[in-house]
Every structure is written in structure tokens, then in C-alpha cells.
Predict the 3D structure of the following.
Amino acid sequence: MMKRPKRSGIDFFIGEGRYRERLKGARLAMITNQTGVSIDYRLSHCLVNEKFRLVKLFSPEHGLFGNCGAGEDVDFYTDSFTGLPVYSLYKVGDQSIADFLLEDVDVLVYDIQDVGARCYTYISTLYEAMKTCQRTKTAIIVLDRAPMLGRRLDGLVLSEEVRSFVGIYEIPFRYGLTPGEFSKLVYKEKGYDFPLEIVGIDPSGIEENPDGFEYAFVPPSVSIPTFDSALAYCAMALLEGTNVSEGRGTSTPFQVFGAPYIEAKTLLSALEGLRLGGVKFVPASFTPSFSKHSGVQCQGCRMIFEDKTAFNSFETIAGVLDAIGELYPNDFKLLEEGQKIAKLLGRPIHAGMRFSSLLDESRKDCMKFEKRIEDIVLY
């Protein structure tokens, strides 16, 4: 029998009459998608529409139902469940909420389950929404959700010179905060003064659980179908800045990786020599159905989690990148002259740089960040 999930912000928001009483007559808008579900897996925006005066919806990257690919434009449309207009907040060159779209909104409600990796753009959408609400003085209510991968911190804190929508704020790559805590951090450090409220969660399942996630889980996008793929994403997302396939277009994205020029046996031997914590590698051969090397057979490795609590995402991807670069110096390429991986990594890079040379810096970054969020953590 499936274990009953623990309660998230939406469950308290809908279940407690004080919110309905206080917001009676207020015009609400929601930023949400398919991950916004209640303890019994009902869509949050449908529940809010039943209990409150919901006037419009905003969707992040991948659309309201997570069916759009990474980076894909989504047009304006009408939600078939509520009849409400849906405005996409993910457009090439513009991921913000225009001020005029909040002219008929009193409260903006945010309810999205994030993966917990800085480059996963849902928190970037929240950040941009906060900037708009600071200008318009529109209230925000964040319906909080547990961090999918627990409180673990890993990777470099973002450097200002590589800021982008896939790295929008100075946090580690794996940042260990809830959406509510992230909003609280931004609110404090930016000196914002619009009304911000965070509706909390049942915190009893928030710590890292190697057996999975204890809250209602809906895949956050087509390329993150499982808890294990989310954990793998925290390492292998950096491959998106290279000509190595990160497994998009396969049934196990981010858990399998390779390229047409890689020999699986050779790469496997190199990775086994690194003795990386928590993971094993097995040889893999695959043909992506879309994305990089679509329709072309690739060889590489499959990552198997042996001990998820011992898995160090940045150490793992640094080892993988260095190994491929050393084995295939004439074939391995960084896309966009290294700018794409720099945005994902959070640091400018230079030719010939070993990614493992950044491990000590990442550990120091995470220690500093832990002190920075001492009064931010809610649970």
C-alpha cells in the first residue's frame, strides 16, 4: 500500500479557514504547474479556484502541466480545468512578469515543487516574480514544499559575472532550501518590503531520505521522471554545457551519459579509478531519440546509486568532466565557448581548467552559505 504523503503548504492553505476568511474577495493569481498538488494529489490551482477568487494563472518553464521541453516557448492559452487564462513566464529573452499583468491582482500565490538545483529554473521564476511584486507592491504567498533532495549543500555559490536565468542568485548549486526559505533569503538580502507570507509544511519528512521523497511527488518535467533522476540531475546537469549527451531522449535522463566518440570500456576504467562516493558506473550504449546526438549511437556509462547519502554531486561531475576531457581532448567540447557550462557551474572558466580544482572552493562556499542561512531556515 502506498504510504500517505506528508502535508505541504497547499494543504494548510486550503484546510485552514483563516486564509479563506482573510482573503475573502481578494483577487488571486497563481504561479504553478503540475507539481503543485495536495496531499491527495489534487491540482493546487483547481483547489484554490474552488475556495478563493482566482483570476489568472502563470506557468514556469515546461508549461502548466510540465509537458514542454527544456527551453521551449509556451504560448498564452486557457486552462481546461478552470477556464482561467494561463500566461507563460518562460519566453526566450524574457522570463519576467510584466507589471500590467498584476494590475487586477491583489495576491500572487506560488506553488511549485523544485528539484533543489540552482539551474532548475523554477526558483528563477520565483525570483523574477518577487522583483515585479517589489515594484507593484503586490503581496506574495508562497505555499511551501520540502526540498526534494533534503538539506545537503553542494557545489559553488554563483558568481555575479555568470548570472543568468539558469543561475539567478548567489546560492550553491545544490542549495537545500524550500521555496519559502529561498524567498525569505532573497527578501531579506534585497531589502524588499512588499507583503510576503510563507505557508509552511509538515517538517517531519524534510531531511534527506535515501529511500525517496515523503511528500506528494509529481515529476517536475519530462526529463526528471523519478527521484533518482532528480538526484542525478544535481551532478549531470553540467553536461548540458558540453557535447556529451546527458541522457535526454532516453528512459533514464541524467543517469546515463555518453557521446559517439566515447568508448564505454575506457571511460568506465577511468571513472572506477576515481573511487567516487555513493555511486557505481556500468558501461552503457544508447541512442537518444531527441536532444544531443539524436538518432546517433553513443557509448558511455550509467550511474548507479549505491549510497545516496554518500553521493557528492559536484565531486562526481567534476570527475566525469575531467576524465572525458583527458581521454578525448580532440573530441570533447564545451558549448558556446564555455559560456554555457560557466552559467551552470556558477563560475567563469578558462581553457584547460580541471573541474576538480574547484572542489575545495565549493566546500568553503557551502560552509559560508550555511552560516548565511542560519536565520533563514524555517524547519
Remarks:
- The CA atoms of residues 62 and 72 lie 7 Å apart.
- Strands lie at 27-32, 53-59, 77-78, 85-88, 107-111, 139-143, 196-199, 256-259, 279-286, 298-305.
- The chain has a mean pLDDT of 94.
- The radius of gyration is 21 Å.
